[in-house]
Structures are given as structure tokens and as C-alpha cells.
Amino acid sequence: MYKFSLLLFLFISCTVFSQKEMTLNQKQAKQAILDFFEGFHEGDTVKIKKTIDANIVMQTISMTKEGNLRTTKTNIKKFLEVIHNRPEDQKWLEKLLDFKIDANENIAQVWTPYEFYVNDQFSHCGVNIFQLFYDGTTWKIMALADTRKRKGCK
Asked: Domain 25-147, what architecture?
């Protein structure tokens, strides 16, 4: 019994100490993404612009009607226009389900599975992948890629 208790204690100790606490860079990169989505949900393009690099690249991976995967590049100006001009009675909600973050002093990559709702109705799900850089003052999103699907979520 003593050996079992000792092994259990060692296993729990190793598990607790092997879980890494989020670094400051990871926290700040995550906050930039949260700020981006706060602006997105509010329709506040000024807030969004504070979180993105002027040269941001945005792409979506989606399925064609023929069942083939393709990438589509999104024009950031059009993206911001759509957000700004969204009808007042239309509510968009992108629920971020998790954050997987790798970061060092000036670059980060963040993986966020999500579900997207329009007026509280499920629309689609997928994964966002953000690449960010630290400009000496704040973290900026320099690339965003996402997947979208309507079935097979969760």
C-alpha cells in the first residue's frame, strides 16, 4: 500500500509540475485575439484595426460544391467594410473553444477551434490559426487562416 501511495503521489506531482503556466507573451498574444473578437462582435473596426498589422494576410480553407478543398484570400478592407456595415439587427458570435499558444519574444502562433452563430443560430465551425508579432509595443495579428464546415462539429 505504501508503494502504491508513493507512486500515486509522484505521478500527481509530475503531472502538476509538467503543466506549464502561460507566459507573459502568450497572455498578451491571447489578449490581442480577444480584443480582435471584441471589435468583431461589436462591429467596431477601429478596435479591430488596433489588433492587426497593415499587411495582414487572411485566408479561408473551404469545400467547393464538388467536394474539393480550396483556399480563398480575404481582402482586409472588404472584411472591415462588411463588419462596419453589418445590419444593426444582425448579431454575430464566434465562440472560441480553446487556445493553443506558442510564443517567444516577438512571434506567436495561436490555434483556436470555434463555433460561429448568426442571431444565436449555429452557422458553422472550424479552426482559426493566428500568427502574431510583437512590434515593440503590442502584439499584432499578421496572418489569419480559418477552416469552415457546417457538419461534423464537436
From this structure: Roll (3.10)
